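DUF4230 domain-containing protein
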Amino acid sequence: MTTSLKRMPGWAKLLSAVLLVLVVLFAGLRLSLLPGLGDVFREDTHDRSGPTLLKSIQDISRYDAASGNFQVVVDLEKDARFLPDALRGTRTLYVGAGTVDAYVDLGKVGENDVTVNEDRTSATLKLPHAALGKPALDPDHSYAVSKQRGLLDRLGDIFSDNPNDERAVQRLAARHIGDAAKDSRLTARAEENTTGMLKGLLSSLGFKEVNVTYGA
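Predicted structure tokens:
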């Protein structure tokens, strides 16, 4: 028995070690389903995070006037050119949900962009066009539906520090959501809401006529 093990090539020893690990993991999963043995394989979670540090503070002069909720299904596939998918390749089906805010930057409004008549009953404001913020994925409503990986990719996950990395599909989902926001009426809605807010505010201050234009 000892002589046969010494004659085994290196790749066979590595394959035997991997199979042994898989057998132990599978056996642990089966044993954890038996009554009384669940505590042996139970996984406890401990939060040992350090204190949160304040890196910087930025003054915000923009008015967030509208927010759009989007959802996209991302189907991301990566193939190896000369290897079959069963051996090398990944395919991830991911549902990404996120929001995009539309805002008007009031900090760009100068003195010449606001005119008021002498009796302070009429005001004209020239504002910059509304812009879109960066897409923000909602982690509570974004999830992977399925993950398919080739044999080599699965073996690589065993030795990886981050085996189920989803950053690629998350970036792709955010990009699709941002493109959808550009094609929507989100900025137009933001300008309408900003106009309504300013007219209501100035009317409460005694202005009877308020004109708001965009494009400054």
